Amino acid sequence: MKHTEQMMRPDALKNKVIVVTGGGSGLGKSMAKNFLDLGAKVAISSRNLEKLTATATELESETGGQCLAVACDVRNIEEVEAMHKQVCDTLGPVDVLVNNAAGNFIAPTERLSSNAFDTILDIVLKGTKNCTLTFGKHWIKTKQKNTNVLNIVTTYAFTGSGYVVPSACAKAGVLAMTRSLAVEWAKYGMRFNAVAPGPFPTKGAWDRLLPAPIKKKFDPKKRIPVGRVGEHQELANLTAYMVSDFGSYLNGEVITLDGGEWMKGAGQFNNLEQVSKTMWDILELAIRKKK
Ligand code: HXC
Ligand code: NAP
Fold first, then answer.
1. Mean pLDDT across the stretch 205-223?
2. Could you tell me the residue ranges of all domains in the chain?
3. Which of 78, 206, 238, 244 has the largest count of CB atoms under 10 Å?
């Protein structure tokens, strides 16, 4: 058994209709493929229809499932409502919404224009709000139960982080939305959860967060206790469980999947791993002497 293998039983998502925003690339594409493998009908959406259509065709041929490509800029509520209608008309009532679409880049905050800051807030926080309100209100109106929303956040949604401040603010807002609605809308049969991935290589993230000139110096592997970055299938396995009926009791939770990365940053003495054995011998003697 390997961590890169499919974990769930093959019918785990049979008869589910799942929408993945930002599903044409990166982690969204990997989650969509896994959902299809597990029997769901999946709609992927983003701004670029050409990319989405190519992805949908690829995923359908790989999995034998049904994958619908729908163009939608999550910043625009009318486009989100139209996307929701197109998915319902084509695939049937939606059971699961995965808010995965995001925008991000590293920059010192003082270099950001007001519009640059807004652009990230709009894609991540407003986009998640637009999709959540549209899908959630529909579920309430039609009395559809056993639905859920999965939000893809980051570990700096709880710690904050310099150099990605708009994204940190937006993801923190998404996490607050997750926890708030998990309580308020549970009475309508909805669950809300989040996953906080550590570094998982994708072109979208690596181009904007780990560009070539700093790639070696800031190699994420160096700060991850398990010594490696994440494999897409690991995230796909976790999220499939979370959105499936096996996860029915999971509500209002954020699950971190980062090999211990953020804990390492938080523990004040964790960088003592750089101390050699010989130095530990010297330190122990010095400390014992103080008694
Ligand atoms: C400063 C920048 C900038 C940069 C853009 N801007 N790049 N400012 N430094 N590097 C400014 C622009 O000048 C403009 O402001 C404003 O931001 C909007 O830029 P546009 O290019 O007009 O916006 P748009 O076409 O909507 O593109 C949005 C984008 C782009 C976010 C800038 O990168 C994008 O499309 N991203 C989508 C995919 C993505 O980001 N994936 C990575 C997710 S990774 P002005 O004032 O000039 O108009 C992720 C991981 C988190 O979230 C955790 C990792 C561990
Ligand atoms: P990615 O491939 O760039 O995914 C982002 C997706 O969002 C793209 O498919 C993009 O498609 C879409 N998108 C951007 N703006 C949009 C808009 N206005 N409307 C609709 N769709 C939009 O990067 P990724 O690494 O897979 O990221 C996926 C998610 O994981 C994000 O939420 C990210 O914050 C999170 N995450 C990633 C990592 C990591 O290490 N990779 C770590 C933590 C969290 P278009 O450009 O076609 O619109």
1. 94
2. 17-290
3. 244
Q: Of all atoms in ligand 2, which is nearest to the CA of residue 208?
A: 3
Q: Rounded to an integer, what distance in angstroms lies between the CA atom of residue 245 and that of residue 237?
A: 14
Report residues whose beta carbon is within 6 angstroms of any ligand 2 atom. 21-22, 24-28, 46-48, 51, 73-75, 100-104, 123, 127, 152, 154, 197, 199-200, 202, 204-205
pLDDT tens figures, 29-85: 999 999 999 999 999 999 999 999 999 999 999 999 999 999 999 999 999 999 999
User: If 0-12 CB within 10 Å is exposed, 13-18 middle and 19+ buried, where does residue 51 land?
Assistant: middle
**Encoding tokens for residue 56?**
């949908």
User: Could you tell me which residues are beta bridge partners of residue 272?
Assistant: none
How far does the centroid of ligand 1 lie from the alpha carbon of residue 207, in Å? 11
Tokens for 243, please give them: 């959105």
CB 196 within 8 A of CB 263: no
CATH architecture of 17-290: 3-Layer(aba) Sandwich (3.40)
Instruction: Return d(Cα 38, Cα 15) in angstroms, integer.
Output: 10
The residue type found at 55 is: T
- Residue 265 and residue 161 in contact, taking contact as beta carbons nearer than 8 Å: no
pLDDT in tens, 110-144: 999 999 999 999 999 999 999 999 999 999 999 99
How far apart are alpha carbons 217 and 80 in whole angstroms? 40
Residue 98's nearest CA partner among 149, 145, 52 is: 149
User: How far is Cα 235 from Cα 197, in angstroms, rounded to an integer?
Assistant: 8
Nearest by Cα to 247 from 10, 3, 12, 5: 12
Strand locations in the chain, DSSP E? 17-21, 41-46, 67-71, 96-99, 147-152, 190-197, 254-257
CA pair distance 166, 122, nearest whole angstrom: 10
pTM: 0.98
CA-nearest residue, atom 21 of ligand 2:
46
